[in-house]
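Subject: sequence -> structure tokens, single chain

Hey, anyone have a minute? Need the predicted structure for the following. Not urgent.
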Amino acid sequence: MKIAISTGGGDAPGLNAVIRAAVLSAADHGWQTVGIRHGFQGLFDGKGLVPLGPNEVRGITHLGGTILGAANKGNPLRWPKLQPDGRVVEVDRCYELIAAFQRERIDALISIGGEGSLTIAGELWRNGLPVVGVPKTIDNDVVGTETTFGFDTAVSTATEALDKLHTTAESHDRVMVVELMGRYAGWIALHSGISATADVILIPEIPFDIERVCEKIREREHRGRHFSIVVVAEGAVPRGGSAILRATGAAGEMDRLGGIGELVARGIIERTGKETRTLVLGHLQRGGSPTTFDRLLALRFGSAAVRSIADGEYGVMIAYNPPNLTRLPLDQVAGKTKLVPLDSGVILTGRHLGISFGD
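Reply:
Had a minute. Here:
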């Protein structure tokens, strides 16, 4: 048996732990393992397959990032192709990718990624490639699993940053607006905001009214608390508005969330006159060594993926449903996003603590 491992999408703490567990578990079965560099790019160019054995994965459990490299662009189902007239069109390279797997005599694929990568994995499975998915994202927005590895580390990083901001905010009687990652799901902002005793938490699932945010700040002023911490998920939306996008590519495409923190800060300044500062924590949330929880979960995921291959069960995603790992059909995951339920016990806890959600 020869299996391949791919790490698609953005990086997340714990990726190397999954790789190590999968490689060692495969070696225990007497199988050969190869890694695909930078998503599926390594198969297309024929230069990105690397052998993975016990020696190659020694001492990587605690390391952040991925030894295989990450790729959040280059979807094989919508691969950008430059036309002679200068236009860029999207083409489906699914069958070309499967042919590459066959050419390299790869028997099965472990696809480690978020919703996008798992959707691709599901399509490859429907077209005949034996695939097992492993859910990975700091955003915790993959359906069917209680949590994804990388989420706990990202929340810990954000919580530590918020803890440090309390002291400078109180010293200067300032409002600190902190923009956190999470795309269109508010898990990171919610968990870190409550854990760090934020005063306002704005998440995509609850459209906010800036006036209600300012009411909370004024209320604290009246109680002699002359500073406030406002946590904003990057995908948060004002009531009646839409998410804020910014340009990142050379062509100026508006394809990345970002800027809502600055918008909220301006609204607070205009309505309260309070000195307000904005911090975008950004990719710090992706980096660093994984927490103990993420390490163990990632190791369990990698081992479970190999067991699924050994059982001949493909087209599934390994899911964490405490205390056990289960297998969920990939077609139940594709194209779906796990949002924070409005009746979430975590949200209810925040409301009982007096936190404003801007509604």
